[in-house]
Structures are given as C-alpha cells and as structure tokens.
Amino acid sequence: MAILVTGGTGFIGSHTVVQLLNDGREVVIVDNLCNSKLCVLDRIKSITGKDVKFYKADLLDFEAIDKIFKENDIDSVIHFAGLKAVGESVQKPMLYYHNNITGTLNLTKAMADNGCKKIVFSSSATVYGNPKSVPIKEDFPLSTTNPYGETKLMIERILSDIVKSDPEWSVSILRYFNPIGAHESGLIGEDPKGIPNNLLPYIVKVASGKYDHLSVFGNDYNTHDGTGVRDYIHVVDLANAHLKALDRAAIVTGVEHFNIGTGNGYSVLDIVKAYEKATGLTVKYEIVARRPGDIDACYADPTKAYEVLGWKAQYDINKMCQDSANWQKKNPDGYGE
Ligand code: NAD
Ligand code: WQD
C-alpha cells in the first residue's frame, strides 16, 4: 500500500516525503517540476537512504494521473501540488484556477475511479481572510482576498461535497500558517524562484549579503510593535502533521479541518531579532508602506490538532531560524540549475 504525494518535490512535500520514508511508509511522488527540481529526489535519498518512485506528470493530464493509480497500489493521497504565489494569482487568475482546481478535480476523479478515498489536502490560513480576532479557530468565518486563496477555499468545498456524495471518503484539510525552516541536514529547503515574496526567505538573503536590506511592510498595524504578526511553523513540524492526519484517515471517514500552526504570533521585527540572535548575522531593514492585502495579525489556535490528531509543534523560532540559515549556508543558490 503506497501513499501518493502530489507536489512531493516541492518545499513542504519533500520534507513530508522524508518523514514518511523515515517512518517506513511506501511513497510514490507525482510532480510536474514547475516549481521544484529533480535533484530533490537525490537529496531525499541522501537523508533517508531510500529511493522513492517518481512520476514527472501534470495533474492537468488525467490519463497520466489515472495511469499512476493503475500501476501502483495507492491507498491514500497527500495533495500538495498547486501554484501558491498570491501576487501572481492576481495577475494570472485563470492559470491559478485551472491549475489548482482542474488539477484537484482530475486527481479526485482518478482516486474515485481507482477506489482510493483518503486524502490529506494542503489548505492555508489564507481561507480565514482578515479574522475578527486571534487566535483563529477552525470554525471562524471563511473568506478570501485573492484568486490563490479562492482556489484553496473552493477545493475545501469540493472535497466536502465529495464526502457528502460518498461517506466512505476520508478528507483531512490542513490549514497551514506560515511554514519556514528546513530539514536540519541542510539538504532540502525552500528554493523560491526569483526575488522571494515571503518574509523568511527574504531575511535569509539579506543576512547572507545577497540583498542590501529588508523592506518591512508597515509599522502602523494593530500589533505590539506595529509590524504584522504571523504564526511561523517549522516545516518539519508541519510535515509530521501529515503523518498524523494519514493515521486518522485510516480509521475515520468524513471531512475534518485542522489549523497547523504553533499558536504563537511573532511580528516582523520579532523575526528579524530572532534571526539575528540565532545566527549572529545582521539583518538591515527599512520601514516602508504597507503591502496591499496584508492583515494585522494571524495566528492559530492549534488545540484541535492536538486533541484529535495528537499533533503539536515541537520546534521554536530559534530552531526555525537556525535551520533556514543552515540551508542557505550550504546552498547559497538553492538547488542550482
Ligand atoms: P511548492 O511550490 O514548493 O510545491 C508545490 C509543488 O507542486 C511543486 O513542486 C510544483 O512543481 C508542483 N505542482 C504545481 N502544480 C502542479 C501540477 N499541475 N501538477 C503536478 N505538480 C504540480 O509549494 P509548497 O510551499 O511546498 O506548498 C505546498 C502546498 O501547500 C501548496 O498547495 C500550497 O498552496 C500550500 N501552502 C503553502 C504555504 C507556504 O507558505 N509555503 C502555506 C499554506 C499552504
Ligand atoms: C509575513 C509578514 C508581511 C515580506 C503568505 C500568503 C499565505 C501563505 C503564507 C500560502 C507580513 C511581512 C513580508 C517582506 C515584510 N501562503 N513582510 N517584508 O503574507 O502572512 O502569507 O504566505 O498559502 O497565503 O499570503 O506571509 O511571509 O509574505 O509575510 O515586511 O519582504 O512579513 O507584511 O506581515 P503572509 P509573508
């Protein structure tokens, strides 16, 4: 019995594959490599000592996905594959809707056709929009502000409707907060294309001398120091939540939603200081205007994940910063060409 991991060579997918292999589970990866590189498979092997079966295929190609199910004994799916850049989704909404939604429809049809009814889906805290209060609980109202977020919310609803139509399905919707860090080996990590949009990847490049300074987007938010507050979570902690969700899917049917965060909120300036403390490096910054669409504060109440899945984040912000810095030091150009 294998687990199909879509998007398994990507940032979160690769870390999850490592945890799955180390736990002795059988894995098949499908990825079209539109935002990841083939050499990730060698890195996964270096860490785990195991080869993993890989298909270079696009979820938009139904025949190719169906063939993967026919050729393997797939019992469950962890579905990471998707496009994730918020700004790009505003520029190219059709690309995002087609890739993320059609890709998921093809995947779930291939699953249904081949009798596979267990799926863990990568959702995002973005589905809470601008929450009325923090910490955020799973039953807070849902809304989105951009096409990327809209695809996450639509996919959540599609999966819920599938469960309504066939109660044998087991759907686990994990709403990630802000994943950062890297595997402590420094062999796998986040490798954004071009100039990073997200805070930690940008800080890492400033501290390593690639960029002169960080632009802090606004210091007039309603937070303890005026800069935006988020719930940063170590990617290995996040990966481990998927193993717990799979275990649960093996014994229950229906749809469940879980916040996957630490429950701690850190401001942009807290993160700058934490990175400096963890690495001994300097992060020059300047305060600039707010980034459109940003919100004051977003952090999880992760109680449900603990009570139902038995999952809790283990790593603190210091470890997240150290592991991000270690990945950067060992791979100044990411995975390279
Ligand atoms: P990533 O881009 O590193 O990984 C996604 C992988 O999916 C890539 O390897 C890409 O090549 C692949 N992919 C995309 N479209 C595909 C398609 N049509 N067919 C086959 N493969 C395809 O992203 P990540 O950070 O690892 O995120 C994984 C998932 O988690 C995504 O669904 C993302 O939306 C979600 N998520 C990410 C974050 C974050 O901040 N990183 C936060 C919340 C949710
Ligand atoms: C964090 C904080 C910025 C960069 C995004 C997506 C979300 C999810 C995770 C996928 C904010 C500030 C940032 C910079 C800054 N992805 N910042 N200077 O916006 O919370 O979430 O990634 O699902 O959907 O929207 O993360 O890392 O971009 O920003 O001051 O150069 O850092 O304003 O307060 P965000 P982020």
Summarize the model shown.
By secondary structure, the chain is an alpha/beta fold. The chain has helices at 11-22, 40-48, 62-71, 86-91, 93-113, 147-165, 199-207, 235-249, 268-279, 303-309, 317-330, and strands at residues 2-6, 26-31, 53-56, 74-79, 118-124, 170-176, 178-180, 214-217, 229-230, 232-234, 254-260, 266-267, 285-288, 297-298.
Jot down its keywords:
337 residues, alpha/beta, binds nicotinamide-adenine-dinucleotide, 18% strand, seven-stranded parallel β-sheet, 14 strands, binds UDP-4-deoxy-4-formamido-beta-L-arabinopyranose, 11 helices, globular, 40% helix, three-stranded mixed β-sheet
Could you walk me through the main structural features you see in this protein, from its secondary elements to its overall organization?
With 337 residues, the protein is an alpha/beta fold. It is 40% helix and 18% strand. The chain has eleven helices and 14 strands. Strands 3-2-1-4-5-6-11 form a seven-stranded parallel β-sheet, sandwiched between helices. It has a three-stranded mixed β-sheet with strand order 12-9-14. The protein has a two-stranded parallel ribbon with strand order 7-10. α1 crosses α8, α3 packs parallel to α5 (93-113) and α7 packs across α9. The longest helix is centred in the N-terminal third of the chain and has 21 residues, at 93-113. It is globular. The chain starts with a strand and ends in a 7-residue tail after the last helix. The model has no long low-confidence stretch (mean pLDDT 98).
